[in-house]
Amino acid sequence: MYDFIPDNPYILLTPGPLSTSKSVRNAMLRDWCTWDADYNEGIVQNIRSRLVALATSNTEAYTAVLMQGSGSFTVEACLGTAIPKNGKVLIISNGAYGKRIIEMAQILDISHVTMVLTETDAPNPNKVAAILAEDSDITHVAIVHCETTTGMLNPLEELSKVAKAAGKILIIDAMSSFGGIPMDIGNLDIDFLISSANKCIQGVPGFGFVIAKRDVLEQCAGNARSLCLDLIGQWRDMEKSGKWRYTSPTHVVRAFYQALDELEVEGGIEARYKRYCANHSILVNGMRDMDFNTLLPDEMQSPIITSFLYPDAKFDFMRFYEAVKACGFVLYPGKISQADTFRIGNIGEVYPHDIRRLIQSIQEVMGDML
Ligand SMILES: Cc1ncc(COP(=O)(O)O)c(C=O)c1O
Q1: What is the DSSP letter of 34?
Q2: DSSP for 129-157?
Q3: What number is the average pLDDT over the span 283-309?
Q4: Whose CA is nearest to atom 15 of ligand 1?
């Protein structure tokens, strides 16, 4: 009989999995039957309708599908189901997650064109409009909202306008932003929005979800390039009874339900956004005071995760990482090719007082590293 539940030894300042509340972790401490209405109606259907309500006030027009696996599985399911065999997608990429969508299109044999930018460049909506005007075969546009590679917030509103003005179906990877940055996908006319359990809703990893325009999703029957990652197959079963087609990650799902409750108690997405912004501003001001510069200018930066440049060529990130970890904070290495960076996330069960303690710890670590 194992009844020891350890406390977390450190706070994860990473873009997911992230630090979760003890109550979210405790919610996993019972088993559920996947045939039973307690689970399917009480938990799964409730989650699906709450996700739609978080995404838009136009709840009639949208529906939610949950999908087993990490976020990438859901991105792949969405691409493979949303784009028909004779479709063509424009993929806008300025980081690792845009690049991953390109790789998925290649492997799934989806016809695509790319707009590939450097990791510090934001997509220009006029250039996107020009590509769409030139190539009338394009049917879909795929964009990453917050490019977690750098922390850049791509200009969703402007890009959505351009894609919709050209009559394209819009797929948004909002993995690291949904739940943490207010948006109404109905107002933005987004057709498919993708995110996962272990990002700004602050659940634990194990499934992703798509919030899709119901009538657009209904037209996707027969498109899927995979049995398991068929969003339509999953959606049809879930619509009937809340049952997942294949084994559902029950404990993770129950933890997510708890995380949604906690988001509500916090005051919803607007309140969570304010907390992340407060975390971010304390972080950036404190780091700049220690001569750590941000990779991105403030106007491109999201409050989700921030990339910092190494202070000098001698900076030993692994030594710094281990020392900061010993103080109770886990940071994230950089992911970009153009500069030496590391990243610090603001999302999860992390509060301004945690970030203040982090800054104090970094001051001490930097003093020791001299
Ligand atoms: C924007 C974005 N897209 C996709 C992913 C991939 O998600 P996962 O690592 O859960 O597969 C991530 C992960 O951080 C992400 O930030």
Answers
A1: T
A2: HHHHHH-TT--EEEEESEETTTTEE--HH
A3: 97
A4: 175
